[in-house]
Amino acid sequence: MSIKTRIIAKSEIDVVVSLCCEVQNIHVSFAPAIYRTIQKPELKKWFEEHLEEQGTSIIVASKDDVDVGYLLLKLVEREEHLFHFARRFAEVDQICVTENLRNSGIGKALVSAAKEIAIKAGIYHLELNVLAFNVEAKKAFEKLGFSTKAERMLLQC
Asked: What is the sign, positive or negative, of the torsion defined by CA atoms of 119, 124, 128, 132?
């Protein structure tokens, strides 16, 4: 029952499409006025386009030869401007672990693989965004060592 990770090629995009639908459905159920249900063909195209971007990787985790999670990683370079210095960081754009296997080490394996990619690129920290309503995800990220860097607030008008 070991967890294995691999970086996938464009030809394996279908693996992540179904997993992404699972996460998107959570977002839709919590905020249906903001998030929409995505059809698989448009989602596949979205992943294919992102995978073509330089510095973007999709890591897939499998357990017992079944794909059970993925992480979309982007290596980001921000130019210096008036308010901050130039900086490089790795952004976890998306992460998904199939619901019945959460809290079983899959997220940890995905984040470890992302850290390896970042370190090979000379980047020494990962960043991600988590929605306020997703308390379980926030707890999981904190358990993995992430800490809050900023909060974005909303005011209904």
From this structure: positive
